[in-house]
Write a structure and sequence with these properties.
Distance between the termini: 30 Å
CATH class of the largest domain: Alpha Beta
InterPro entries: DDH_dom, DHH_sf, DHHA1_dom, SSDNA_exonuclease_RecJ
GO molecular function: exonuclease activity; nucleic acid binding
Strand order of the largest sheet: 2-1-3-4-5
Largest sheet: 5 strands, parallel
CATH architecture of the largest domain: Alpha-Beta Complex
Amino acid sequence: MKNLLKAAKRIKLAIEKKEKIILYGDTDLDGVTSVIILEETIKNLGGNVVAVYFPDREKEGYGITETALKSLKKFSPAIILAADLGISNFKEIEQARALGFFVMLVDHHEVLGKLPKAHIIVNPRQKSETYAFREFAACGLALLLSLKLLGKKGSDLLTKGLYELAALGTIADVMPREKDNIGIIKQGLENLHETWRPGLKAFFETGIIAPSDVPGKIGSMIAMLNVRDESHKLPGAYRLLTSKSGESARELVKVLEEKSEVRRQNIRDIVESIEGKMRDLSSPLVLAGGASFEYVLLGAAASILSKEYKKPFFLYKKKGEECLGSVRAPRGYDTVEAMKSCKDLLITYGGHPPASGFRIKTKNLKDFEECLAKYFTTHHA
């Protein structure tokens, strides 16, 4: 894969020279598992990981943010190794470079016409990519990079743990279960009930999931890991999956289970609210939102609605003069291309064809809806 060896060589050099490395990831399970895979690999090889950063989507926005760079500039010069984001952060990556950072991206989102000016980009969706399979989650790419870094130095126990994480992130990000992903999922789940990782053992030790129920209940485990539970700017999934203590892991997994029930009901409330606002059922898409919605739940709500009504749903949280949106669509629709046709109305956008996101000025919502309707009228699934 393009730049995979180049990225591995640069990280190896950083490890040898004890350069400072910052791991930066998205807050969803794909981003979290990507960061942990890279962190455990780099630390295992003696690397100097000085910070782990996950941006608060509601407060900072998605991706590499100016808020993050202000917080991290005290570590410069350093490597920022960003996973599951960054491919659309053109301005912020130039700012990071100006601050003295060496920027590396491990991302799987659609390339928006041009590439940002990161020093090294591992993304199978680059135009010049020759690797046959492109449907990796970011954690799958992090796994490939880690295996390249470890070579013969990786123990069977470490490798098993990395595959478990990559399997969870790949399933959570709903990537196609084909080709390379089949191997990642199979190897990650086949002995998950015998995991060494305290955070995963906690699911079995508390009786939340019976060992015999894997992989049938993997969806329930992922739902709990995706619950919003931030402490010290670290997502609950990160804290659980990196936990060294069985006791603290069992306590946290019970908290996540309780919050998962609340999350499920809150998602249902959003779905019912959106259904109550739907007037024109003949429209090729739905654009709807409100100020009271919790942004991190919009993707799950949009997913339920798009499956039910067989059309794209663009849901947003209104925050004064701006709105943050999450998009889901049935297979066959390309929501990134749709937003590309309306990009002059947007602040930022990006993601995958069936699952993406956007930021927009509130005043542009009506024009955005008309622009999307025009696109989807001529571009059916």
